[in-house]
Structure formats: structure tokens, C-alpha cells
Amino acid sequence: MSKKWLNKNLVGMGAASFFSDFCHEMATAILPAFLASIGASAALLGTIEGFADAVSSFAKLGAGYYSDKKGIRKAIAVLGYFLTAAGKASFALAVVWPQVLLGRIISWFGRGIRGPVRDAMLSASVE
Q1: What is the pLDDT of residue 4?
Q2: CA distance readout (Å), 100 to 6, 30, 31
């Protein structure tokens, strides 16, 4: 008998991804206005985004390799989701732009490590 394509792994990972992306979009929508309110320029927003994207890209390379080599995917994915949430939540405490930069880097590092690991787990969960 073949596996069902809609199983608890698919539903759970889909829900986690949905809510994580939902929260990301809410925070990203107000980030320019928030940075302006603490005295940061538009150029700093670009710098923050650039550093965060670079960290995410390198994290994807390392996390994919590491999880394939060690075979521990669930713990890495959970850590990635936790770091993403913690990085976004740290915006609430930010009073200067370097704190936003740090929170964004932590958040994007988490997103970078969870992505390839989650995709590997999804592909292993369905035929």
C-alpha cells in the first residue's frame, strides 16, 4: 500500500511554514516605517536586507550539507523556526538600527537553516 500524500508531516510542516511566513510578512511590511521612527535611513534598510540575505544563503549551504551528513533533520528545522521567531520578536526591543540588523540576521540565519532541511523532510514524507 502506498503512503498517503496528505499526512501529518505535510500538514504540520505546511502550517509551520504558513505561520512563519505570515509573521515575516507582517514584520517586513512595517520595517521601513519602524526604522524611520528610530532614525535610520532607507540606505540602512538596504544594508540590513543585504547582510541578512547573505547570511541566509550561506546558512542554506551549510545546513543542507550538515543535515545530509549527520541525518538529524528535525532538530535543525526546529532550531531554524525558533531562531526565525526569536529574531523577529527581538524587533520589539530594538531602539537603534544595529539591534534590528542583529535581529534580522538571526531571523534569516534561522530561515536559512530550516529551508533545505524542511524540504528534505517533506520529500521524505511523500512519494
Answers
A1: 73
A2: 38, 12, 9
Average of pLDDT values for 115-122?
Answer: 92
Note the pLDDT of residue 92. Answer: 92
| Residue 2 confidence (pLDDT) | 59
Cell triple for 72: 538529524
What does the chain look like in DSSP terms, one character per residue? -PPPSS-HHHHHHHHHHHHHHHHHHHHHHHHHHHHHHTT--HHHHHHHHHHHHHHHHHHHHHHHHHHHHH---HHHHHHHHHHHHHHHHGGGG--SHHHHHHHHHHHHHHHHHHHHHHHHHHHHH--
